[in-house]
Design brief:
There is one protein chain. The protein has one domain: MetI-like (MetI-like fold). The termini are far apart. The protein has ten helices and no strands. By secondary structure, it is an all-alpha fold. The longest helix is centred in the N-terminal third of the chain and has 35 residues. The protein is 81% helix and 0% strand. This is ABC transporter permease subunit. It is found in: Cell membrane; Membrane. Belongs to the binding-protein-dependent transport system permease family. Keywords: Membrane, Transmembrane, Transmembrane helix, Transport.
C-alpha cells in the first residue's frame, strides 16, 4: 500500500499552510491589484456621482433621467458590460475600472440624492438668510448634512466593488479573482479558499474603515442618538 503524501499541497487540501508560504508573493500581488481596482473605481464613481446627484437635486426634471440611466446600467450583467466596453478600453485594467464605475453610480447617486433631499428646507432658508450663496450653501450646509446617507451608499458601493472586481478575471485583471478563476479550473482547493477568504477580509476591512470615517466626520449623528 502506498503511503499518502505528507504535503498538504500534494493532497490538495482546502486549508494548507504550505500554499501560503510558497505563494506569498503571488497572493500579495493579487491582493494589491484587487485593492487598487476597488479604490480607483469607487473614487472615480464618487467624483462622477456627486455632481449628478447635485444636478438632480437642483433641477427636479433631471432626477428621473439620472436615476433611470444609472439604474439601467446596474441591471446590465457584468459579462455584457465588459463586452460593451471592450472596444473602448481593450483587455486592460481600465476596462474593469470603467465597468465598476458604472455599476457604482446607482448606489452612490441614489444615496447622495436622498441625503440632499433630506436636508430640512428651514435649514436652507436660514443659511440663505445669513447670506449664503448657492455654492457656499451646498459645500457647508447641504453636503455635510447629506453625509450619513452618502456614506451609507459609499459603503455598499465599496463592498459591491470588492465582489465585482473578481469578475475582471475574465479579462485577466481581477485581482484575487484571477486566483479564484484559475483555482476553480484546476480544482486547486487551497488557492480557491485562500483567495475567497481574502476577498471577504478586504470587504469587511473596507466597510469597517468607512464606518469609522463616517463616525469621525459626522459626530452630530452620535449626539442625536444619545
Amino acid at each position: 500500500m502506498t503511503a499518502p503524501p505528507d504535503d498538504c499541497l500534494a493532497r490538495n487540501e482546502w486549508i494548507c499552510g504550505a500554499y501560503l508560504s510558497s505563494r506569498r508573493q503571488i497572493l500579495l500581488d493579487a491582493l494589491v491589484q484587487h485593492v487598487q481596482l476597488t479604490f480607483l473605481s469607487v473614487l472615480i464613481g464618487l467624483v462622477v456621482a456627486v455632481p449628478l446627484a447635485v444636478l438632480a437635486r437642483r433641477w427636479s426634471w433631471a432626477a428621473g433621467p439620472v436615476l433611470a440611466v444609472t439604474t439601467v446600467l446596474y441591471t446590465i450583467p457584468s459579462l455584457a458590460m465588459f463586452s460593451l466596453l471592450l472596444p473602448l478600453y481593450g483587455l486592460s485594467a481600465g476596462l474593469v475600472v470603467a465597468g465598476l464605475v458604472l455599476y457604482s453610480l446607482t448606489l452612490l447617486v441614489r444615496n447622495i440624492l436622498a441625503g440632499l433631499r433630506a436636508v430640512p428646507e428651514e435649514t436652507r432658508q436660514a443659511a440663505r438668510g445669513l447670506g449664503y450663496g448657492p455654492v457656499r450653501l451646498l459645500l457647508t450646509v447641504e453636503l455635510p448634512l447629506a453625509l450619513p446617507a452618502a456614506m451609507a451608499g459609499l459603503r455598499i458601493a465599496t463592498v459591491s466593488a470588492v465582489s465585482l472586481v473578481t469578475v475582471g478575471a475574465i479579462v485577466g485583471f481581477g485581482g484575487l479573482g484571477n486566483l479564484i478563476y484559475a483555482g476553480m479550473n484546476t480544482y486547486f482547493k487551497a488557492q480557491v479558499l485562500t483567495a475567497s477568504v481574502l476577498c471577504v477580509l478586504i470587504a469587511v476591512a473596507a466597510d469597517l474603515l468607512l464606518l469609522g470615517a463616517q463616525r469621525l466626520i459626522t459626530p452630530w449623528t452620535r449626539a442625536a442618538r444619545a
